[in-house]
From TrEMBL:
Residues 246-275 are annotated as: Disordered. Residues 259-275 have a biased composition (Basic and acidic residues). It comes from Brevundimonas intermedia. This is Membrane protein. InterPro entries: Integral_membrane_TerC (IPR005496), MFS_trans_sf (IPR036259). Belongs to the TerC family. Its main location: membrane. The lineage of its organism: Bacteria, Pseudomonadati, Pseudomonadota, Alphaproteobacteria, Caulobacterales. It is a multi-pass membrane protein. It is found in: Membrane. It comes from the Bacteria.
Length: 275
């Protein structure tokens, strides 16, 4: 292993590939982390951090496991059958299945966010299971698998050096681990951000489905749209905070004026009694 790493240390192209791949892996990891954060926030508070740690740990294990069988993984892009002139590989099927699951999950979460009143139908009985950490971890595993395959195949397309891939994956998962609790808490404390994050998941799910059907959408467009939406929401949050501060200042000023008026009235009454 060291023999394969040493030559790369003096290769500028290898360093450039490493930096680029780390950025890509971190960006792809954010998608994974948003899903884990939203799902873990639906659990009882004492279970949330543990489930987030397990989800991110599983993401790391899956990525490293896929790197260890990289030759088999690359074979997933080979067509296995053709439908109406469109070739489908195992990778395509996995992306389509993962995208459909993500669209279904995001749509259901949006429905419950908009209309939180339980309807007691058959589908709602499944939602009760989210209070179980095991059910949440199972759903996280499914999406971890999809995101891990997408992540590693992206890495394979950018470099042929396994050490670079391993380092990039380790850095990306470390960033996910550090950002997990702050991101989850931020989403939990800002209800409007929850809807925005669910919209991101819905969009990512559609992109995975499109990718599975052979319609590649450049990820730069996706993340530019996400960054723009996040920027608009940040401005809205700043506006709401400013309005809240103004309301508090107005209320405090009104209380001060009332206290001053009561003090003047008391002084006037005292002066009248002396007279």
């Amino acid at each position: 292993m060291l023999d394969s790493i040493t030559p790369l240390l003096s290769d500028p192209a290898a360093w450039a590939a490493l930096v680029t791949l780390i950025v890509m892996e971190v960006v792809l990891g954010i998608d994974n982390l948003i899903f884990i954060s939203i799902l873990s926030n639906k659990l009882p508070e004492h279970q949330r951090q543990k489930v987030r740690r397990i989800g991110i740990g599983l993401a790391l294990v899956m990525r490293l496991a896929l790197l260890s069988i990289i030759a088999w993984l690359v074979g997933l892009v080979q067509p296995v059958f053709t439908v109406m002139g469109n070739e489908f590989s195992w990778k395509d099927l996995i992306l389509i299945a993962g995208g459909l699951f993500l669209v279904w999950k995001a749509t259901k979460e949006i429905h419950h966010t908009v209309d939180p009143t339980p309807s007691h139908d058959v589908m709602d009985k499944k939602d009760v299971m989210i209070n179980n950490a095991g059910a949440a971890i199972f759903q996280i595993i499914l999406l971890d698998l999809v995101f891990s395959i997408d992540s590693i195949l992206t890495a394979v397309g950018m470099t042929e050096h396994l050490p670079i891939m391993v380092i990039a994956v380790l850095v990306a998962v470390t960033v996910m681990l550090l950002a997990a609790d702050p991101l989850a808490n931020f989403i939990n404390e800002n209800p409007s951000v929850v809807m925005l994050a669910l919209g991101f998941l819905l969009m990512i799910g559609m992109v995975l489905i499109a990718d599975g059907f052979g319609y590649h959408v450049p990820k730069g467009y996706i993340y530019a749209a996400m960054a723009f939406s996040a920027g608009v929401e940040a401005l809205n949050m700043m506006g709401r905070r400013s309005a809240t501060k103004k309301e508090k200042a107005t209320a405090a000023r009104a209380q001060a004026d009332q206290a001053e008026a009561r003090a003047r009235k008391a002084e006037a009454e005292a002066a009248a009694e002396k007279a």
